[in-house]
Recover the amino acids of this structure.
């Protein structure tokens, strides 16, 4: 979707000591305050896409992700090591080119980026409640409170919160004392999946029974062979009996 801010056509970014990119200069300084304004680089955005993927099974709306960012491509690397980024209309999700993503924070309370934060927070809570056996369900308020406390601690120590850090804090959040193996079971359990598991267990049990029967049969065959061998070795030879009779 095309964004309405036509004055936002370029920006310059620098790499900070924290290895995040920060806006140094922007084409629309009236609406954008460059003080502690971060921008997400292509590598970081790809990581965010990977973190967002499990939420697709819980109702993730890709259009909210797309609408939350302005897309920028690299135009030039300056002598002072800053990079000149030019605004592009490509979707940050669908573009094949590596793009920088600037969150739309013109309205911090009700803008597209704020809507995205609210959306993924609810989905993350929903996923955690589905995958972890809490004594009582986790709430959105509990997640937001923990993240807000961490952000306040960073602010008190003079560290600005980068957008990448803010997003990953939500997408990687797990309550203290719990673990979540996101390589497994990151999809909601369905009746079909439970049925497949039960069938797999039944098949496994059948295979074990069949193996036992086969072993017992082999044992019976061996016993019959041993009995036949015993009878042959204990029976008297016929020619010896004939010689005695003569």
């Amino acid at each position: 979707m095309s964004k309405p801010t036509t004055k936002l056509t370029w920006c310059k970014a620098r790499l900070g000591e924290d290895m995040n990119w920060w806006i140094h200069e922007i084409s629309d300084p009236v609406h954008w305050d460059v003080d502690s304004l971060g921008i997400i680089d292509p590598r970081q955005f790809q990581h965010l896409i990977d973190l967002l993927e499990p939420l697709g099974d819980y109702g993730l709306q890709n259009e909210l992700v797309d609408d939350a960012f302005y897309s920028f491509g690299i135009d030039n690397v300056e002598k002072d090591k800053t990079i000149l980024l030019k605004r592009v209309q490509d979707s940050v999700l669908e573009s094949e080119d590596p793009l920088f993503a600037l969150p739309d924070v013109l309205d911090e309370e009700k803008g597209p980026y704020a809507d995205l934060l609210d959306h993924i927070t609810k989905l993350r809570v929903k996923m955690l409640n589905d995958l972890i056996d809490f004594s009582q369900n986790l709430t959105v308020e509990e997640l937001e409170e923990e993240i807000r406390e961490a952000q306040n601690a960073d602010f008190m120590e003079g560290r600005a919160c980068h957008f990448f850090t803010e997003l990953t804090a939500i997408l990687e959040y797990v309550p203290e004392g719990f673990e979540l193996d996101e390589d497994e079971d990151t999809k909601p359990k369905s009746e079909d999946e439970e049925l497949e598991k039960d069938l797999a267990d039944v098949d496994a049990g059948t295979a074990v029974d069949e193996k036992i029967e086969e072993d017992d049969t082999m044992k019976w065959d061996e016993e019959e062979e041993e009995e036949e061998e015993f009878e042959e070795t204990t029976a008297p030879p016929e020619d010896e009996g004939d010689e005695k009779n003569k």
Q: What stands out?
A: The helical segments are 42-52, 62-67, 112-131, 140-156, 163-171, 191-234, 238-245.
